[in-house]
Design brief:
With about 260 residues, the chain is an alpha/beta fold. Helices cover about 50% and strands about 15% of the residues. Strand 4, helix 4 and strand 5 form a beta-alpha-beta unit. Helix 1 packs across helix 7 and helix 3 runs parallel beside helix 4.
């Protein structure tokens, strides 16, 4: 019997590429995103090319209650989720006090609340079957505070710490949790977050979503706890432990500035 992967934020970027990878390796899919047209086209592509079953769920996961609605749809469809890929998330650039509360609220709800609730809803089934894998999209932003993207960095720190702790709790139960920590990636994230002119990304050759997705898939299947994409990103992530936090925060702001 084919196993099934549920992927959020599946209509673009890393989520889209992960969908293609899972389908190419013979997995059925549950794809969740807001863009009905994009998901419909992806469903057609994957079913025709790889002969897998694809259930699409059109849902805005930044709305309270959406995680439970996704779970209810999956249960009613009789689908067993073996791999949970919590990819959906977004960031916003600018001083915290100048950022609208609606944006902040949606970011926290999507990046933290929805991710945590989906994990809570689908994890018991994996534990009872003694098999399952969870991939949480964290970031190199998880490793230090981020002035000018304060809330986004904080949400990703939550994802990293939550994932590490949960993977330890699940040790020996046949279920693993992997925190995928990419750096800046050519995924459309920068345009949404309005950081195209930031020193962090401007003029840089960024890795593609496909590269990051392939690394994330491999790390997930290996049961890695933390997967940082790219040698330089790994060095930068761990170098934050070597310097005073005040200096790390100051340097992070300078890198982020336009």
């Amino acid at each position: 019997m084919k196993r099934t992967a549920l992927i959020t934020g599946a209509s673009s970027g890393i989520g889209l590429e992960l969908s293609r990878i899972f389908a190419s390796t013979g997995h059925n899919l549950v794809l969740v995103a807001r863009n009905q047209e994009a998901l419909g086209q992806l469903k057609l592509e994957l079913e025709q090319k790889h002969r897998v079953e694809v259930l699409i769920i059109i849902k805005d996961l930044s709305v309270y209650g959406s995680a439970a609605e996704v779970h209810d749809i999956v249960v009613k469809a009789g689908v067993q989720v073996d791999y949970l890929i919590n990819n959906a998330g977004f960031g916003s650039f600018g001083p915290f006090d100048e950022t609208s509360w609606k944006t902040v609220d949606q970011m926290v709800l999507l990046n933290i609340h929805t991710l945590t609730q989906l994990t809570h809803l689908f994890l018991p089934g994996m534990i009872s079957r003694k098999h399952g894998r969870v991939l949480q999209l964290a970031s190199t932003a998880s490793f230090q505070p981020g002035p000018l993207m304060a809330v986004y960095f904080a949400t990703k720190a939550f994802v990293l710490h939550f994932s590490e702790a949960l993977d330890e709790e699940l040790r020996g139960k046949g279920v693993t949790v992997t925190a995928l920590c990419p750096g800046p990636t050519e995924s459309g994230f920068q345009a949404v977050a309005d950081i195209l002119d930031s020193k962090l990304v401007k003029g840089r050759k960024l890795p593609s979503s496909k590269e990051v997705a392939e690394y994330g898939y491999k790390s997930l299947m290996q049961g890695k706890r933390i997967a940082i994409h790219g040698t330089m990103n790994r060095l930068l992530a761990f170098s934050t432990r070597l310097f005073p936090r005040r200096l790390v925060v100051t340097l992070t702001r300078k890198i982020q500035e336009k």
